[in-house]
Structure formats: C-alpha cells, structure tokens
Amino acid sequence: MSPQPSTPYPAPPAGRSSEMRARYPRYYAQKDLLGADESVVAGYQRAVAGGTPVSMSHSWRDPDVPDESVQVIVGGERLLLTVEEWLDRIELAQPHLMSWVSARVHLEGAKDRAGRGRVEPYWHEAIRRANPGRR
C-alpha cells in the first residue's frame, strides 16, 4: 500500500465526524465544494455525448487554482468557488453549480451516453428538450 499524501489537516476518526467538522470547518468546506463540483461535472460527463466540454480542477491538484477553491470550466468560461465565499452556505454550492453549468452548455445535437451507469435525470431531460423530435 502506498503512503497517503500528507494534508495540513488530520483524518477524521471514526464516529466523530461532526466534532471534526466543527474543529476544521474550512477543510470540510473544501471537501464539500469538491464533492459538489465532482457531482455536477461527473453527472454531465456520464450523461452527455457531443455537448459543450465541461471540466473541473481544484487547489489540491492544480497549483494555478487559488488555495481552498474549486474551478469549473465550460467552453472558455470559468467559475471559481472559494471556501471563503461558500463557508456559511455550502449546501447551496451544488445547486448553484448545476445552474451555472446548465446555463452555459449547448446540447443541440448532443446524445445520451447509453450504458454509462446511472444517467443524471436532469441532463437526460435537458438533452431531450434541446433536441425535440429525437427519441
């Protein structure tokens, strides 16, 4: 087993999640932002073939992204979400991301990616609306 990369925060002990969240709110906020980002982007990528390219990055992996932040890229547009900005309203990050991405992708001519696991119903419906008359 390879060693885990070190982080400036300790791993949470089993059964003490809420205590650890209170103790390290910024760390968990960044994890939650990353989870929201990955959920929206991965859901889009699993569901859509031929639409606008959507990608993501985050400060733990990309030195060009500011500390404690995640970034979504749709076409040439970028959205940067920071822990500072979202710390007290983290539960709103995923709906905000979904709204931002869906307002910028072009699904005309796109298709469902059949056989790619469970497809996000939102994107399935968006593809159907953007391509009327197609099954």
What general form does the structure show? elongated
Mean pLDDT: 86
Structural class: alpha+beta
Instruction: From the alpha carbons, calculate the radius of gyration and give it in angstroms.
Output: 17 Å
Count all strands and give the number: 5
- The helix/strand series, from N terminus to C terminus, equals HHEEEEHHEH
Gap between N and C termini: 48 Å
List keywords for this structure.
single chain, 135 residues, alpha+beta, three-stranded antiparallel beta sheet, 5 helices, 16% strand
Write structural notes for this entry.
The chain has 135 residues and is α+β, with helices and mostly antiparallel strands. 41% of the residues lie in helices and 16% in strands. The protein contains five helices and five strands, in the order ααββββααβα. Strands 2-3-4 form a three-stranded antiparallel β-sheet. α1 packs across α2 and α2 (25-47) runs parallel beside α4 (93-104). The termini are far apart.
Topology record:
Layout: H1 17-23, H2 25-47, E1 48-49, E2 54-58, E3 69-74, E4 77-82, H3 83-86, H4 93-104, E5 111-112, H5 121-130
Antiparallel strand pairs: 1-5, 2-3, 3-4
Helix pairs in contact: 1-2, 2-4
In short:
This protein has helices spanning 17-23, 25-47, 83-86, 93-104, 121-130, and strands spanning 48-49, 54-58, 69-74, 77-82, 111-112. It has 135 residues and is an alpha+beta fold. The strands form two sheets. The protein has a three-stranded antiparallel beta sheet. A two-stranded antiparallel ribbon has the order 1-5.
